[in-house]
Amino acid sequence: TTEKMAGFFPIDGQSLGEYKGWTLVMPAVSVGNVGQIAVDLVLATAKLPKIGFWLSPSVIPVVCNDPLATKTKKVKGSISLAVEFFRCVDRKLVIMQRRSPLTRGGDKRFSKNITAWAEKSGFSSIIVASSSQAYLNDQGSQNKFWCTYTNPSPKTVAVIKNLKLLYKSLSPARTLDAKSIPDSGVSAVELLRNGSELTRALLENAKEAKIEALAVLAQVTEGDNLVDGQELALLLSNLLKALGEKGVKAVIGVGKKFKIPFAYEHVYGPPPDRQIYT
């Protein structure tokens, strides 16, 4: 497979150009894979239909059984690939999930191709679920989440400000070009360089393509990041609800608990003995 062949391959007859005004949601492989966990939780709970996959030499190929099954008896034997796309027509959302690493140096090619496809398909905005290194938040801030964006619409800016009222642990958002993040003293680009280089590449490519792009990040450390993923999934779900049209059903219902895929039972192993802390 050559890079020229990289692109979206539909599995239900869908073609390019059908997503004008839609939002593309995707994770960025970053610290603790929190973005991927959050997207998995949303997909497993919302049960959105799969519409296609992405083929690219920049992505290490992988084939697996249904990774979203919540119980062993519900595994249907369906094949899943490295990069897949799911759709929510009511909310005008396409959600991408990536389950394997990129090849060395493939992050720039991958982000450029994804952004070019999003532009060609008519997507109006891109939302990236990601994470950054917690140790960079060294200015005394207690905020766990932060946002950075480019080409933001007035509605997006207003929504982020309102979310700040709900989430005390969410720092005020700043554009990608801002010199520092409030309460942190570290620039957005520096935070993204340390733990989420792909997020920065996606935002920069979106900026060039004049597509609105927003990254929501959790500041974490490597380890058992399932709880971090749940928190980011909740923030992401509320963000999508706030950005959507009024009266349209939310992707995840209010008060509904996230369903955890069965596969996650084997990711982190048993927790440490609590007696070591006493």
UniProtKB/TrEMBL annotation:
<keyword id="KW-0143">Chaperone</keyword>
<protein>
    <recommendedName>
        <fullName>Proteasome assembly chaperone 2</fullName>
    </recommendedName>
</protein>
<comment type="similarity">
    <text>Belongs to the PSMG2 family.</text>
</comment>
<dbReference type="Pfam" id="PF09754">
    <property type="entry name" value="PAC2"/>
</dbReference>
<dbReference type="GO" id="GO:0005829">
    <property type="term" value="C:cytosol"/>
</dbReference>
<dbReference type="InterPro" id="IPR038389">
    <property type="entry name" value="PSMG2_sf"/>
</dbReference>
<dbReference type="InterPro" id="IPR016562">
    <property type="entry name" value="Proteasome_assmbl_chp_2_euk"/>
</dbReference>
<dbReference type="GO" id="GO:0005634">
    <property type="term" value="C:nucleus"/>
</dbReference>
<dbReference type="InterPro" id="IPR019151">
    <property type="entry name" value="Proteasome_assmbl_chaperone_2"/>
</dbReference>
<dbReference type="GO" id="GO:0043248">
    <property type="term" value="P:proteasome assembly"/>
</dbReference>
